[in-house]
Amino acid sequence: MQNVQIEFFGRLSDRMGNKLSWEAEEESLTIGHLRSNLAAEYDYDYLLQPAVRGLIDDEIVPDSSVITSGDLVTFFSPLSGG
Amino acid sequence: MSVHAQLTQTTIDPTLVEAAFRETANISGAVVTFRGVMRRLSKQGETLDALVLEWHPRLTEKSLHDIAQEGLSRFGVDKVSVSHRCGPILPGETIVFVGVASDHRREAFQAADYIMDRLKTDAVFWKREEGSFGSRWIEPTQRDQNDRERWSK
């Protein structure tokens, strides 16, 4: 069981808010697992789109990346540029 | 050679920003500047009340700096300056200022063009239009993507 702090940017924040504190049951939680869990919990398939990028501590990471205690997880909607 | 990149929530005065850039670039033979302005109508022809640029507290300004640095390095120009608004922007206000100074004009034009194409697709922003229709997110157009791809060839 671990607590994960998550931030959302762009279109995602309409549904998910800007910040979320998530209690994960898995000991070894990946970005991909978290993405799937959130999509199911919030009934929000948009989170599963490959164009939605996951970050750990401000670095874009693949879905296989494992989240460890104290990590800041972020999900980016597709960038719209300036 | 120098790069300046700034993210600001306050109004950009294009006259002041351009004058400041020209002052720092006063030994260069070519100075190219570009100003992007908040349009008054959407692509669908609706009147816009505002454009909102959501930004990331750490990664957005870094992306501006990285793009400016890559423009400077790629074209070997002397100076690049990027000032970009974030937050709510009103019609007619300046969204972005790009200045490039170089020994020769062609590199300055190319660097400014490259930097704008990169900003339009790779800068860390999420853009929302607001008007009588409500609020809607907008993403890069195919034309923006094609413009960006030109520099990959």
Provide structural commentary.
The complex is a heterodimer of chains A (82) and B (153). With 82 residues, chain A is α+β, with helices and mostly antiparallel strands. Chain A starts with a strand and ends in a 6-residue tail after the last strand. The mean pLDDT of chain A is 94. Chain A has helices at 12-16, 31-41, and strands at 2-9, 19-24, 29-30, 53-56, 59-61, 66-67, 72-76. Chain B has helices at residues 14-24, 59-75, 105-122, 142-149, and strands spanning 2-8, 30-37, 48-55, 79-85, 87-89, 94-102, 125-131, 134-138. A four-stranded mixed beta sheet of chain B has the order 1-4-6-2, with helices on both faces. Chain B has a four-stranded antiparallel beta sheet with strand order 5-3-7-8, with no helix packed on it. The two termini of chain B are 26 Å apart. The interface between A and B is medium-sized, with 12 and 23 residues.
Beta-sheet strand percentage of chain B?
35-45%
In round numbers, the mean pLDDT of chain B is 94
Which sequence of SSEs, written as H and E, runs from N to C of chain B?
A: EHEEHEEEHEEH
CATH class of chain A: Alpha Beta
Distance between the termini of chain A: 40 Å
Task: Give the low-pLDDT segments of chain B.
Answer: none
Q: Based on Cα principal axes, name the global outline of chain B.
A: globular
> How large, in whole angstroms, is the Cα Rg of chain A?
12 Å
Task: Report the major sheet of chain B.
Answer: 4 strands, mixed
CATH domain fold name of chain A: Ubiquitin-like (UB roll)
- CATH level-two architecture of chain A: Roll
**H-E order of chain A:** EHEEHEEEE
How would you name the oligomeric state of the polypeptide chains in this document?
heterodimer
Name of the CATH homologous superfamily of chain A: Beta-grasp domain
Summary tags:
heterodimer; A: 82 residues; alpha+beta; Ubiquitin-like (UB roll); five-stranded mixed beta sheet; two-stranded antiparallel ribbon; 7 strands; B: 153 residues; Aldehyde Oxidoreductase, domain 3; four-stranded mixed beta sheet; four-stranded antiparallel beta sheet; 4 helices; 35% helix; globular
